[in-house]
Amino acid sequence: MSIPEFAARRCWHAAINPLHATIYFSPDLAKEYAALGVTERLAVNLASRSAAMGAVGAGAVTAAFYNYRHDSVARHLPAVWDTITPEQALAARLRAADRTLRRLLGEETVASPEIAEAADLAMRATEACTRHARPLYAAHADLPVPEEPHLRLWHATTLLREHRGDGHLAALLIAGLDPLEALVSHTATGRGMAPKWNRAVRGWEPSDLTAAADRLRERGILDADGELTDEGRAVRERLEADTDRLDAAPYEHLGADGLARLAELGGGFVQRAMAAGAFPADLFGKA
């Protein structure tokens, strides 16, 4: 490898994914969709992220999203497409991304040369992304690239996010973690979403999470207190290593210097966004 070990993973977690994910907790997204008649949180989430695939139904979305409860998805898809078209959903999401980034970063930062530089770096990384077996990435890669630098950056982080995410699903299958076991074991690391948000965002019930934790205890991945065992930590690290391997190409293409600069710039934008309240204070954690 031409880049330092774990550099791509650190950049993705600290700079790429959170910058893209600001949209999912943004009041601007809720307002844009409410104006079009979509008001339920889960419906907004499902429509905004799946719209790039067209007016698909619950089965395709459950498969591509992996860790959402299928009957919760089916309550909103394909019914949401009777209210809003995929084209409207995509346009509303882009408007929301514009408003969100301007609000969180400030107009001066949005217009800065650093935003344009980060957008160029992130888009360069996407040149090495691949479509095969990556449905969410491939669908978003068919969308036009916005002209404004801050939206071009957000679009690039979306592509990089979905590219790694699609590969991560393959790694989850290899690890033998079903959708709920993936969520519960991630929460146990202390870096995943808290249980209340797995219920609110992904439609799971407390009993679902409890049953998954019981299965993980039987497999020796969690201990009696719900903490990761040595084997559990090893499983999670193998999972991340496999994901890194499947997602290496964009960052190898960018190179060590470009990756370091993208991490520096993007990490700074994320810190600014978080200081401005981009995410709920209780979003991450074990409780």
Please provide a written account of the structure.
67% of the residues lie in helices and 0% in strands. The chain is built from 15 helices and no strands. The protein has helices spanning 7-21, 27-34, 41-50, 58-65, 70-74, 86-105, 107-110, 113-126, 135-141, 149-175, 179-188, 195-202, 206-218, 230-246, 249-275. Helix 1 crosses helix 15 (249-275), helix 2 runs antiparallel to helix 6 and helix 3 crosses helix 6.
- Describe the sheet with the most strands: none
H/E topology pattern: HHHHHHHHHHHHHHH
Mean of pLDDT: 96
Count every beta strand, where a strand is a DSSP E run of 2 or more residues.
0
Q: Structural class of the secondary elements?
A: mainly alpha
What layout of secondary structure does this protein have?
Layout: H1 7-21, H2 27-34, H3 41-50, H4 58-65, H5 70-74, H6 86-105, H7 107-110, H8 113-126, H9 135-141, H10 149-175, H11 179-188, H12 195-202, H13 206-218, H14 230-246, H15 249-275
Helix pairs in contact: 1-10, 1-15, 2-6, 3-6, 8-10, 8-15, 9-10, 10-14, 11-13
Describe, in short, the structure shown.
With 287 residues, the protein is an all-alpha fold. It contains 15 helices and no strands. It has helices spanning 7-21, 27-34, 41-50, 58-65, 70-74, 86-105, 107-110, 113-126, 135-141, 149-175, 179-188, 195-202, 206-218, 230-246, 249-275.
